[in-house]
């Protein structure tokens, strides 16, 4: 059998077996051979046909508002939420370094076809770890928005309340399987629920179900696991992620930038050593807490029918927010 005949037979066999990856792998081999033998136009046409077919297939798998492969109006609504964010990078309050790493992730997906031609796969298994309020969910929203995909948030703590017995694990796998067929950004919140190294055997089986979900995830989708408690994760779990993004409380300079950005035209006039003035009041406050404090100061000014937040306004709001956190502890 000639090389071309062999390839055609292999493609037919893969198609009949429903092996999409095998089908396209053979097609890419044919395109590569055409290129090496000098038939550039033929190689280009084959590659364009492959990408067009993949794009069409992915588009058909994109989550619809009312079609997640599961009935979100049923009891599954307790732990699955679908949204369509329109967030932008300008809205993020995370560090510039983290923003660059997220942009790099998106670049990989933008060049997915090129990477696949060279045997690479875009990073699609992310672990986001850091204190509450440091921007993990907001970052997931930007990823979904930039990719033009829905964000499917899976609340693992609620999920384990529903599927709490050993005999429920197969049903949980079925839910994951149905979700994985749809193209979306999946955010698994409170991931430490299944990451504790002292967890039961049942929890371990839930983690394996999660890994199977990630393995069968459709091309173009991303799975993000988010945790506030990295310390409780079994270290062996980290190898299952392509990328780990470490979120932290903002530095004093970052905190000042967040507050000024939130206040906008109402921000107080900048002064020398401004960061030094507020640094002690920034301590322990997350990006989300700083935003709340800035909004509180702005509301006080509006109610006084004034236009500019004073230094005292801001210190008062930051102090109150810090005291609230201490009381919460």
Automatic annotation (TrEMBL):
Taxonomy, superkingdom: Bacteria
Pfam families: AAA (PF00004)
Record-annotated AAA+ ATPase domain positions: 122-251
SUPFAM superfamilies in UniProt: P-loop containing nucleoside triphosphate hydrolases
UniProt cross-references to InterPro entries, sorted A to Z: AAA+_ATPase, AAA_ATPase_domain, ATPase_AAA_core, P-loop_NTPase
Record PANTHER family: AAA-FAMILY ATPASE, ATP-DEPENDENT ZINC METALLOPROTEASE FTSH
Protein name as it appears in the record: AAA+ ATPase domain-containing protein
Organism (species): Yaniella flava
